């Protein structure tokens, strides 16, 4: 690709543009730092707000040494106008002539001192053809150039001619060595962005409209998490003001996973996105989760029918008034008869209002009736009188008995402690056996000491929302969504009730007994019925032989799903080794040692029950492992991962200990096989399976990698 030695070639011109862009970025940062807000605002609150925005801007203008300023270039024939949106005057590259317009595509926008763009943000409309244009549909692009970097230096480029004479017919992952190199790059450290190599079908999802909810079903390693995170960055760029006001949130399965992905958005310049697990979302100040439910109880508590039980329970204290309400004002008494009060209460019960809002409306309704009487008596009361009547002691007393205040935690405590109360609320919804399974073994005395479980906390969250509406964010990305119970979907759904969501998951990786069987159903629980479901099938992580081995489990765990393909060119190392039971642990330690002799991260995945023994053996052998989610470094590359925490993570080399124990660690065989499927699909370039017990399910059939 580079020209003859000695002569300045295209690579030199590109390096010169890189150097000039760096200088321009430094100047932009210096300008931001030099901003003097002293003259603009005298008010210290405004000044503080403005200053923090400037600080953020300065931070976001940092030149990240490890992230090249641009990774691609587009040469358009003529002037690009993909959306009919105004495009800034193009800087024609020095080696271009005629009508060509050149744009460099990078992580952020950089302009020169005249305001002309040096680098275009990858999220800008004009960058879209970088991801989507093809020989079939060039979208005005004559040439697409991808840049390769080695240790921060621009060292290579790769061209695709998309139109005009000499246009290349081939494009796509197989045609790009730079993409292949990126996919093969060792995975030490936290998750990286994929902004330079987003594929067309991924880009469609990343840039889907903010107004609709999108659900993505995808086999392991197809880039769902990557797509979700890039989508957030894209939406924040495109709808900055709206989303800054309403907020965005990424929901992931556990802390280690969140820790693993937390660097991606900052690397894309987005520092202000909340990340949480579902348990974090429903955390209640008075509740400490300290118990685990049986699978049966957790399944029932997560069932959508519980929402009906709770709705009834919240309203169960409402009574129909039997006495009139008498309001004394001055020398006069105003009487609202019981039948009118009853009408008011029934009307409020029929309306689809939050319990708390209805409680607030009740005194005003009663006051209105009093005012009508006052008018009939010739008085001319105004709004202030109505407010005063609403605050009158008699009206307050009425509200207190007729529409009592409800505390969500106390209500759920009663529901789970008091069999008669539960029976009354769950009548016709839960069978008597189901009610027994839901009840705590012993009634709880107080909210503080009750044996709350994670599923109970979701019930309290639902009850709280029945009383007062949960504020909605602008956009929520829900990753590993397949594991949520219907009640958990509802909890996430109310946090995007007026916004939209990106739902990412894989039915085959559902490892909770209540894991979703259908996205259509899940989306209904989320409050986004009928949203589009897209499928990603190109795998970027798992080598071909490994995904083929893992996919043998699909007929048992998710018969409707198709096997993923692998875009990775290298076949990967794959071995299945059988050992005597008493030799297994030593063999696993040796396999870890062998894997560490290679480049990249190593994950030892084992049944949770085996991790203690394996951890001790590793330490004894001088191979002290990290915990899942802890950042791997060049010096510390081995992680011991309990199978229940492996989801979403990846390692260059995976050593998988005793598959049978992983399956047996789960309450039922299907969940066990799914857990194993997750564990088998964490490997980027090599998988070594070691076992003493027979391999479970369809894995037992002989395979070329099999060794006895
Ligand atoms: N277009 C791409 N270019 C380069 N790498 C990619 C691309 N898409 C995905 N990857 C890489 O593939 C790996 C798997 O991606 P990711 O974790 O997003 O997949 P996933 O579908 O969420 O997997 P899982 O279902 O196992 O959680 C990551 O290392 C990611 O960076």
Short description:
By secondary structure, the protein is of the alpha/beta class.
Task: Describe what you observe in this structure.
This protein has 708 residues and is of the alpha/beta class. It has four domains: 10-171, no CATH class; 200-285 and 470-539, Rossmann fold (3-Layer(aba) Sandwich), CATH 3.40.50; 325-402, no CATH class; 544-707, P-loop containing nucleotide triphosphate hydrolases (Rossmann fold, 3-Layer(aba) Sandwich), CATH 3.40.50.300. 39% of the residues lie in helices and 16% in strands. It is built from 28 helices and 22 strands. A six-stranded mixed β-sheet has the order 3-4-2-1-5-6, covered by helices on one side. Strand 12 (475-478), helix 21 (486-493) and strand 13 (500-505) form a beta-alpha-beta unit. Helix 6 packs across helix 7 (240-246). The longest helix has 25 residues, at 10-34. Mean pLDDT is 89; it is low at 83-97. Bound molecules: adenosine-5'-triphosphate (ATP). Adenosine-5'-triphosphate binds at residues 182-183, 192, 194, 197-199, 202, 218, 220-226, 506, 509, 540-541, 648, 650, 681.
């Amino acid at each position: 690709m580079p020209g003859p030695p000695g002569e300045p070639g295209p690579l030199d011109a590109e390096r010169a543009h890189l150097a000039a862009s760096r200088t321009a970025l430094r100047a932009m940062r210096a300008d931001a730092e030099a901003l003097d807000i002293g003259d603009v605002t005298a008010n210290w609150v405004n000044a503080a707000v403005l200053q923090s925005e400037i600080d953020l801007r300065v931070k976001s203008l940092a030149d990240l040494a490890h992230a090249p300023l641009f990774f691609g270039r587009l040469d358009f024939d003529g002037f690009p106008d993909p959306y009919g949106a105004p495009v800034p005057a193009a800087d024609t590259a020095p080696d271009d002539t005629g009508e060509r317009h050149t744009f460099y595509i990078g992580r952020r926008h950089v302009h020169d001192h005249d305001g002309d763009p040096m680098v275009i943000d990858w999220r800008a409309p004009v960058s879209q053809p970088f991801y989507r244009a093809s020989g079939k549909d060039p979208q005005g692009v004559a040439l697409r150039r991808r840049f390769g970097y080695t240790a921060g230096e621009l060292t290579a480029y790769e061209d695709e001619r998309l139109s005009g004479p000499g246009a290349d017919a081939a494009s796509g992952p197989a045609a790009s060595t730079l993409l292949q190199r990126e996919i093969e790059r060792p995975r030490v450290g936290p998750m990286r962005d994929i902004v330079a190599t987003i594929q067309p079908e991924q880009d469609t999802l990343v840039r889907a409209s903010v107004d609709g909810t999108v659900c993505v079903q995808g086999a392991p390693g197809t880039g769902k998490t990557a797509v979700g995170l890039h989508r957030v960055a894209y939406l924040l760029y495109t709808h900055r003001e709206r989303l800054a006001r309403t907020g965005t949130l990424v929901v992931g399965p556990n802390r280690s996973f969140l820790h693993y992905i937390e660097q991606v958005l900052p690397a894309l310049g987005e520092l202000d996105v909340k990340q949480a697990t579902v348990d974090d979302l429903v955390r209640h100040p008075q509740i400490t989760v300290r118990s685990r439910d049986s699978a049966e109880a957790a399944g029932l508590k997560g069932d959508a029918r519980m929402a009906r039980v709770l709705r009834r329970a919240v309203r169960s204290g409402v009574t129909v008034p039997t006495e009139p309400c008498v309001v004394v004002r001055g020398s006069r008494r105003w009487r609202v008869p019981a039948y009118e009060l009853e009408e008011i209460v029934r009307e409020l019960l029929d309306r689809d209002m939050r319990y708390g809002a209805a409680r607030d409306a009740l005194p005003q309704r009663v006051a209105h009736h009093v005012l009508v009487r006052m008018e009939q008596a010739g008085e001319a009361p105004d709004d202030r009188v109505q407010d005063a009547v609403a605050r009158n002691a008699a009206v307050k007393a009425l509200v207190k008995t007729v529409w009592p205040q409800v505390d969500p935690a106390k209500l759920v405590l009663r529901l789970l402690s008091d069999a008669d109360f539960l029976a009354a609320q769950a009548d016709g919804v839960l069978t008597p056996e189901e009610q027994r399974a839901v009840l705590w073994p012993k009634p709880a005395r107080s909210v503080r000491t009750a044996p709350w479980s994670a599923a109970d906390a979701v019930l309290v969250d639902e009850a709280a929302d029945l009383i007062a509406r949960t504020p909605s964010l602008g956009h929520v990305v829900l990753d590993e969504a397949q594991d949520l119970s219907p009640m958990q979907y509802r909890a996430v759904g109310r946090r995007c009730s007026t916004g939209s969501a990106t739902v990412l998951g894989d039915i085959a990786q559902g490892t909770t007994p209540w894991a979703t069987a259908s996205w259509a159903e899940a989306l209904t629980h989320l409050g986004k019925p009928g949203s589009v479901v897209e499928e990603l099938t190109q795998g970027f992580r798992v080598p071909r032989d490994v995904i083929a081995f893992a996919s043998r489990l699909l007929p048992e765990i998710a018969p409707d799903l198709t096997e993923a393909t692998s875009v990775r060119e290298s076949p990967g190392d794959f071995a299945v080794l059988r050992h005597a039971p008493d030799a297994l642990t030593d063999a696993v330690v040796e396999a870890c040692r062998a894997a560490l002799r290679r480049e990249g991260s190593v994950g030892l995945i084992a049944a949770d029950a085996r991790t203690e023994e394996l951890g001790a053996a590793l330490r004894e052998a001088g191979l002290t492992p990290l915990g899942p989610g802890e950042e791997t470094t060049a010096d510390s590359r081995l992680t011991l991962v309990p199978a229940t925490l492996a989801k979403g993570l990846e390692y260059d080399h995976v050593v998988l200990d005793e598959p049978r124990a992983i399956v047996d660690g789960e309450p039922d065989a299907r969940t066990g096989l799914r857990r194993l499927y997750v564990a088998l699909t964490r490997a980027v370039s090599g998988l070594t399976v070691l076992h003493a017990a027979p391999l479970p399910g369809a894995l037992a059939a002989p395979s070329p990698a099999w060794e006895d």
